[in-house]
Amino acid sequence: MQNLLLQIGLHVVSVDGILIKYAKTYVLKCTACFTIVKDCSKMFCTKCGNKTLEKVAVTVDDEGVTWYQRLSRKPRTGRGVRYSLPKPTGGRQSNMPWITPDQPDKIHKASCNVKHSVD
After folding, report:
1. Who's near 5: CB < 8 A, 6+ residues apart?
2. Are 60 and 66 in contact (CB under 8 A)?
3. How far apart are CA 117 and CA 41, in angstroms?
């Protein structure tokens, strides 16, 4: 609600009585190919397809220059690179990692023992 009021041009005061000067906006930035993805519901980069998107704050100057700031101060790690992927397991209870964006989701089918009523 506050973001909407700021975009309209109205002055917004917080609960503490401090004037809110700007609204924060966020995008996702790929750490592999440095592409900016504006849809924050994505998990994979739209350009390279890697699962390397991180949330980045966006600030626009008075001159119209766009700045991107990383939110976390943690160094980027090579997590997930050292060990290979687990062996694929089949069945209904399999817990395989989601590796690619076009990988099909688990399909939950009714078991053979379920009897359907016929009208």
Report:
1. 12
2. yes
3. 39
Average pLDDT over residues 59-72: 84
DSSP string computed for the chain: -HHHHHHHT--EE-TTSPEE----EEEEEETTT--EE--TT-SS-TTT--S-EEEEEEEE-TT--EEEEES--SPP--TTTSSPPPPP--STT------STTPPPPP-PPPTTPPPP--
Q: Is the pLDDT of residue 119 over 60?
A: no
Question: Is the model's pLDDT at 97 over the cut of 90?
Answer: no
Structure tokens at 35: 């592409």
Predicted model pTM: 0.61
Tell me the one-letter amino acid at 47: K
